[in-house]
Amino acid sequence: MGLKNNINLDEYLNKLILEEAGDGDKERLQAYIRSGFRDKELDKLMQQHWEGIQQKSIENNELYLQQLRSKIWTKISGRKEKQKQVIGWKTYLVRVAAILFIPLLISSVYLFWLLSQNNSMDVQSAMQQVYATPGSRVHFTLPDKSEVWLNSGSTLEYPVNFNTQKQRKVKLNGQGYFNVSHNEKHPFLVETGELNIKVLGTSFDVSNYANDRFVSSTLEEGSIALLDMQGKEVARLNPGQKSLLDRETHKLLVENVDTRLITSWKDGKLIFKNTPLNEVAKQMERWFNCSIHISPELLNSDILYTATIQDETLGEVLKMIEISTSVITKIENREVKIGHKK
Q1: How much is the pLDDT for 336?
Q2: Rounded (10°) CA dihedral 232, 235, 238, 244
Q3: What architecture is the 126-259 domain classified under in CATH?
Q4: What is the share, in percent, of the chain residues with pLDDT greater than 70?
């Protein structure tokens, strides 16, 4: 049973802001979230409240955001509100949740508000951040109607005044899939720290997890240009191609690939096709939010794995790997050990 059968969602959101939500309301919400929170009405209302933050005047925004911050960290999660941290003698940063259900959702959406010494807002410097918590995937829409999917442990930042920028710049840490709204006058730019991806309108995947050796870009539709940090074009991808930038050697490789193997995560699936064991383990760690340790003798083995993972649990997947390969697995809490069968 959805939450909408128990309470008016829009009314409930306003209750949270105005400190009128009771414990019973919060308990019903928590039970609903735990049982599977996917609800079109809920998604729509969260988006409406999020857009409402951006539409309010600057004077109202500050009060509204402070109320949201208090409700999230104090009223919903039950934790005491932390004092604002002073970042410098001229400025400080107030972190405010943009969606009211952040302690309960598998994704977190944050609004960063940069304030000057006299508490006036520097809109040009204000950034919004969307975060997919470990083990989760997040799907959302940018102000220009471009769609974004974030994989486990990934973060996307973009300016508050995104639609007024000459270039629609976003900064990615982790893995994201983009379906970009076409706009020739305002090119879309994904910044990764080592390489930038410039597009007009297209569908593509970018991965730049901090602990990965390679930064990859995979194109499904359209065309993307890869730019170095000086803005010079170093390569252009066609559909079905993937680029790999080696962070150690700084060499760039472009190859033809089956894009389904790379982008299926956004549709709730992991597809492996003759995939090395260490790569399988890395993707599973992010998918299931666990730690996987492979015994030294298997690190450079020629074990390859082929399977499609969708609704299976971690334990079920490990059993599948044992059946189809020469390994044995052991799981304790969220720690997995993979060794060679004796």
Answers
A1: 96
A2: -120
A3: Sandwich (2.60)
A4: 63
Nearest alpha carbon to residue 190 among 227, 160, 245, 241: 227
CB atoms within 10 A of CB 42: 21
Domain ranges in the chain are 126-259, 269-340
Token digits for 144? 């220009």
> Would you say domain 269-340 falls under CATH 3.55.50.30?
yes
Backbone angles phi, psi at 327, to 5 degrees: -115, 165
pLDDT at 287: 95
Q: What is the mean pLDDT of the chain?
A: 76
Q: Quickly list DSSP for 153-216.
A: T-EEEEETTGGGSSSEEEEEESEEEEEPPP-TTS-EEEE-SS-EEEESS-EEEEE--TT-SEEE
Q: With bands split at pLDDT 50, 70 and 90, how would you rate the model's confidence at 126?
A: confident
**The 196-199 sheet, strands edge to edge:** 92-97, 107-115, 127-132, 155-159, 168-173, 188-191, 196-199, 224-227, 233-237
Least confident of 22-26, 86-90, 117-121, 254-258: 86-90
Is the pTM above the cut of 0.90? Answer: no
Q: How far apart are CA 248 and CA 335, in angstroms?
A: 29
Q: Which two tokens stand for residue 301?
A: 């083995």
Q: Which residue has the tokens 């508000």?
A: 113
- Residue 44 identity: K
